[in-house]
Structures are given as structure tokens and as C-alpha cells.
Write a structure and sequence with these properties.
Number of helices: 23
Oligomer: single chain
CATH topology of the largest domain: Beta-lactamase
Shape: flat
Number of strands: 31
CATH class of the largest domain: Alpha Beta
CATH architecture of the largest domain: 3-Layer(aba) Sandwich
Amino acid sequence: MEPKKDILWRVYLCYLCIIAVAAVILVKIFFIQQVDGNYWRSMADSLHDRYMTIDAERGTIFSADGRMLSTSIPYFDIHMDFMADGLRENNGEKFKKNIDSLSYCLSMLFRDKSATRYKQLLERGYRSKDRYFLLKRNITFEQYDILRNFPLFCLGRNSSGMIADQVEKRINPFGLLANRTIGLWRDNAPNIGLEATYNNYLKGTDGKRLMQRIAGGVYIPLEGYQIDPENGKDIVTNINVNIQDIAENALYNELVSNEATHGTCVVMEVKTGKIRAIANLGRQPDGSYVEDYNYAIADAAEPGSVFKLATLLSLLNDHYVTINSPIEISTDYRFGNRIMHDAENHPTEVVSVKEALEMSSNVGFSKMAYTYYNNNPQKFVEDLKKLGLDQKTGIDIAGEVKPVIVTPQSRTWSNTALPWMSIGYEVLQTPIRLLTLYNAVANNGVMMKPYLVSSIEQYGKVIKQFDPVVLNPRICSDTVLKQVQSCLEGVVESKEGTAHKALDNPYYKIAGKTGTAQVANGRHGYADHIYQATFAGYFPADHPMYSIIITILNKPHAAHIYGASVAAPVFKAIADKLYALDFEKQVPQQSRPVFDSTLQIKVGSTDELKAILTKLDLPVSAGNVPQPYANATINNQHIYLKPVETPKGLVPDVKGMGLKDALYLLESAGLKVTVQGKGKVTNQSLPPGQTVGKDNSIAIQLS
């Protein structure tokens, strides 16, 4: 082949290849633009613009008396868009004019940098043309409210470039008060309490905001492209802050004095089942106490003698005994290879069932349970189940554990299970479950479901109301109920009652039961002598308002271990204060005061006595008393004023008068007076009616 033809062939081949490649490129461009164009355009948009979540404002949890228990506080992150049109116009005239005064105001508000340092910071952001420059994080609403009135910022976003991003922080205004029950919401962390249980109501619905990606990978919000969030709903609880504070302080004081491991206290309104207070305190390594666990609902343990109420109800409901039936008790009694002990040493004697409960005789109750149920232990188990002691209460908070009642079918059942069950061992009960039973006795046999939340509200309007729920309309007959109530009152009022010394008082009646249970300590077993002390009861016993349970786990080898000496004092401290707060509700006021023979009214000015007694709205009959001084007497619930004679020239009778009136009368009669003591006149040295002589001196004795 000639060289020329060979060269031309090669050139033509290269030219054809170039044309083919160009054609492929053109075809690919066509497919990218026309066929796959929408896909690639959306991909490009996603790299520059994206929707970001705007968190909804979380609802507030309120107490029954309208105080915030948990709420969201707005904080703000302040950014600046240094490319805002108004900020850049006229070569940045507004920025340069206001930067000095703005820097000074920022320095005075936050006090973390000098005005010069703030000016340098702002100038650096302006020079860099940063569109999302961070100026300050986590400022409060009060600071933000001041900030937006500063020079430059007061001109609006377009002229100042200020961007305020709101963030929410969850706080409990009352600190650790009922903290474990209320809970504290945290992102990406386990949440507890009412915050977790009612999260679907509290969280609301998040919004969206379109954000644009700028240089440096920073996103800034675009105006007009935002879906506003729907704020969460508010929760109104049954917790009363004052009662909660009373309960928590009473529990805390006892835990500290006895160096206990942990304790819980629940206050329930008898008629409704509303939880007015729930305190849970656990000892920390440094010796302090905090709300570290909800022992009231999530800690099931052997309750000890407070469980004897359930045994008593079973025996009475099955008509095996009455509270007057005799039972022989002793210090020790053998069941198989185990020996039952009574806490108090006493000789063998016969007592009534009521007395056995009052003195909390383990031997007495275990003997009755064994005597009447040993041939059919399932009957006893079924009686306990009818009282709900094998089920959760259903309280409206996450975390409640299920109680345990062993049965003859259980692997742990033995020939001694029945007598030990009867006194609160080999069963596991939560404090809230036991309180529900005691509350039913206080509520005339009606068992109420305990609950913490009364309503769900939005912008102050109730959208869901929670009413009291009856779990069991009748736990026993009226006859049995009266007997049981009498026994629980006897625990406090009887001199042999285990709570008599701790709780008996002349002002109001208390009914309840003490309980002390020995607790095993892992591999150490019972060698560490750890005891759980409990008192469950209600007051005033004749018209109950509140039922309360206190459960305290003592430290090993504690000085005080019994329910009467550890838990009962907490009950008394709470009950005394609640009774004082509700005194007017407890005792109806008399339409008229009742006078007795001990009431004393001083002899005094007639006009003053009339004015005072009338002002006090006391039943007084003054009649026509011509003398300037009068004596008050009481007869048939009425006050009568009688004149006191003060004849001239004679020694007046000043007995019963105050010092002021006595001095006036005696000195007006021409007598010189010497005084001893304080109060009213009880004796005078010259008898009344005697003629005033030359020796015109008189001594009066006050007391």
C-alpha cells in the first residue's frame, strides 16, 4: 500500500472514532437531561436543600393544685446571616453604625466577653460573609427578650441578619420532689415515670423547616418554607405539692435518723383512690437520699404482719371465726421442721382473734390458717386472689410489678408454706397493692383503683377526664367489715396494740397495722439481720379521708427495726399535719360556742365587756346595768352581766378584776395600793364594804 493511502486510511479511521464517541456523548446527554432529568435534579436539590425537624413544645405536668411539676423552658441559639440584604446595603452602613453600641450591650448582658472582643467577633463574621454565624448558645427567654431590642437587632431579621433558633429544655421546678414518679424526659435515654407513660400526649407533633446548605456544610433556614409543630398536651396529676412535701420530709427524717437503706410512702384519698403523694428515697454511697427508684410500685417483697389483714378477711369471710373467737397463743409453735416465733415473749394463754391481731401474734394467725385451711390450702389462695393480691393494681404509671401468691401447684410450695403465708412470708407484695387493700377497708369495703392523673388538657381545656374506678365493689360483708375495722382501730387504741405508744392520741382516731419482715441478703441469707418495717392504715378512723403506707428497709443490725418504731412515726408525722390542714373539714363548727365551768371572764368595765362580747358574737344578756363595772357569769350556755357596787367611802370589791380597773377603783376611793403578782385580782387586804380610814393603804394579790 502506498504511504499516502495508508496515512489517509488511518486519519479517516480516527475521524470516524471521534464521531462515534461524540455521538455516544450526545446520546448520553440527551438521556440525562430528558429521560433521567427529574431524578438527577432531585438528587442535586437533596444535596443543597433538606427538611429538618422542628421539635414540638412538650406539654407540662401539673399538680392537683395547679403548680408545674415538669415543664419545658425555651432557650435560644442566636446566629447571624451576614449576607442579609439590609445588612449589606449601602456598603454595610447599618452594621458599621450600630456595631459599637451592639458590642457594648452584648458585653453587659452576658458578661462573658468585653465589648472590644464582641466587636472583633462581629467584624470577623461580617468579613467572612458567614450566613449562619453562631453568636451565642442557650440563652434564656428573658435574655432573648432583651437581646431583640438591642441596636441593630431591633431593626428586624432582614436588616440585622439575626436568626433565633428555639430549643426546649425539660426541668422539674420542684427539684427532686416526686422526681421518680414524675420522671424527666431526655432524648436518646431511658425515660421513666409519667413522662414515659404519657409520652404520646406530652410530645405533640413535630414540624418541619426547609434548610439550605451553604458553604462549609452549614444549613440555614429558608423563610416561608416551614410547617409549624403542634405542641404537646398538658397532664394534670392528683399529686398535691403540700402533701407531697409533708410526706417526703417525714420519710426523709426517719431514713436519716435510722440510716435506712431506702423507703417509700404513699398517701391515697380514701373515697376516690387518688394518689396525693408518693415519695421514694434511697441511700446513696455518700450517705445522701435521692429518688433513685420507685419502690412503691416496682419493689415487691415479703410484707410481714401487715399481710395479716388479708388472713383475717379470709377467716371471717369463710365464717371460720369471729373476732371474739378464742385462740391459744405462745411464744413458739412448731410446724413440721420449722418453728414459728412471736416477736414478744409471753406465756401460753388464750386470747381473742381481735387481741391476736392487736398484739400481732404470729403463732395465733399461723395456727388459725393451718387449722382451717391445711386440708384445702387452695381455698386460702383463692380468698387472697379475690382480694386482688395476685394482680397489679393497674395504677397509671409504667413499671408496676406483679405480686406473687404461691399456690399448692408452685414448685416452692411446702407443708409449711400455708402458716408462713398467713403472716406475710412466701408471698411478694408491692406497697401500692397493700395500700389498695387497706384503703378498701377504710372505704367501707369498696376497693378503688389507685391513679395519678386526673385529666389531659390542651390550652386549658379538658380533652380527657379520668374518673375514679372501682376494682371490687365489695371485699366483704358489712358484718365482717365492722369487725375488721374494729381490729385495726384496736392496734392503735388498745394498750396491748403494737402501734398504741406510737400513734394513740386524743385528737383523732387512727386505724392500721404494723409489720416487720426479716429480709434475706443474697448469699448472706438472714445473718445480717436486715428488717423491713411497714405501717399501713388510715385516718380519721371514724370518717376516713386518707390512707397511707410507709415501708422502710433498715440497714443491717439496725438499732430500730419494728414497724411500730420505724414506720409508724412517719405515719404520725404526716397524719398530724394533714389533720391540722383539714381541721375545718374534719370537725364541723358549732353554731354557738359551748361554755363550761372552767371558762373565766374578768370583772371589768360594763361598756367594754358589752363591746367585746358582742364583737365576738357570744350569747350575752346585758340588760340594764347602771353601774360602770360588771361581773360576767355563765348559765345555760349564756353570759349574764351583773352590776358591781362601788359605794363612796367604802372599800370596793375588786376581786376578779384586771390590774387597770382595780387600781382605778381603789385609788378613786382614796386608797394607796401595793401590787404583787400578775393576772387578775384574787385577794385584797381590806375586805369589801369596810369604811376607808386614816390608814388608807391596801395590798392586792394577782395571779
